[in-house]
Structures are given as C-alpha cells and as structure tokens.
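Bit of a strange request maybe. I'm writing a small parser for structure token strings and I need a real example to test against, not something I typed by hand. Could someone generate the tokens for this chain?
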Amino acid sequence: GILGGGVAFAFVVTQFPHAMERLTPYIQEFRDPLHSANWQLSQGLVALGSGGLLGLGAGSGRMKYQWLPAAHTDSIFAIAGEELGLVGCLLIIGLFVVVAYRGMRIATQAPDSFGRLLALGITCWFTFQALMNMAAVTGTIPFTGIALPFISLGGSSLVSCMMGVGILLSVSRASVDEAPAGWNRAPIAEQGEPA
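Reply from user aminoacidic:
Good idea to test on real output. This should exercise your parser:
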C-alpha cells in the first residue's frame, strides 16, 4: 500500500513537469524561508502568526492587501487566522467538525444504502476539502488551489456546497431515526393546528 503510493508519487513527479513545479517551491520553503519562491506559503504563515491568540479584529487584517496572493480564495484560512486569531481558527475547525459529525450521523441513519453512501460522500467531500485547504495554508502540504468550503469567495464552490447541504438535509429528512418526543415530521399542512 505505502510502497505502491510512493512509487506512484515518484512516477507522477518525474513524468509531469507541472507536478515538480508545485513541489520544488514547497521543499525550498523549508530549506531557506527568507529566499523562498513560495511567496504564498511564507506570507500565509506570517498572516497566521500575526493574528496571535485573539487576532487583529474582523476586517483589520493587513496581509490581504497586496501581500498574500489569493487571499479571498486559497488563503482565506490565513486571513481568518490574522483577523480572528487562534481562537477564531479553532472555532472554524470546530464548525467543520460539527458538519462532519452531523454528516456521519445522517449517513448512519439513512433509510437505504444509497442514502448512506450519498451522505457519506458529501460529508467526506466537505471534510477533506477543508482539511486540504487548512493543510496547504499551514504548510503541511503544497498549495493545491482548493477553496475552503462555505468560507472562500467563489460562486461555483459556494453553490455546490449549498447543494451538498441541501442533499444532506434531504437524506436526513428521510431517515428512519426515531423522532424526539413531540416531534412531528409530517409536512406543516398535514400537522393541523397546535393543541
């Protein structure tokens, strides 16, 4: 498994020049951070670090003004770290954990295997996309150009994420989970007047 992945990685890097172009600045960043070709990563780390514990305040960040490339898309987590600080970053991570937990819960309570797989796939999509973006901003992996779901500016990303949430809610509505006491899942028109 791991050996096969390593061989596949080596093949891709040696056969496709653009893969090596993305990997070289990432490796160089850690050899000589002051003269790095990876401006986006180094400035993103500066933005994250300058936020401190509580941040500079919402809208008060400086790195988004001509310092950090793609500050509104790829690097939005770095801007959140600068403006909201460590507390804000942990809040964002916590919200993604809640989305992942609820999505997994919806998947386990889905009425059929199609609903389970659909909910699981959408949940994994949100979770892994968020992890990839945060990992790229923090320098754990090279930048991939993946937006942070629900937060990055981008019409098509936001629309597709909202469609995914709608599908998750649809699967949740059809779940076989026992409703809490007093909860009526019938449409409002069928419920009648409250007692």
